[in-house]
Amino acid sequence: MSKCSKCDADITFMSVLNSPNPLRLKCSNCKESIKIHSVTGGIAVAIIFALIGIVLYAFYGIEGFWLKVVLPVILVSEVGYFLLIKLGVVKISSN
Question: What stretches pass through the bilayer (predicted)?
């Protein structure tokens, strides 16, 4: 389930976006720490980071690199990780 174990609120995109650690989120409703399952979360983060690296390497040096490549890639990766959590591919650890 992609819900907070304390208040039963859904995990929001902003809680994923605001988290400096992709394996630890905070509930946007009650601020409870939400731990992501280390295996499924670790695999998802590793794959996402590898894809980010490949895309950034492929487009390095083009004009407007930061705005045209880096910003969209990071945003798409955050949305992708959020969707993996919402769909249950990346599991929430029970506390």
Answer: 39-59, 65-85
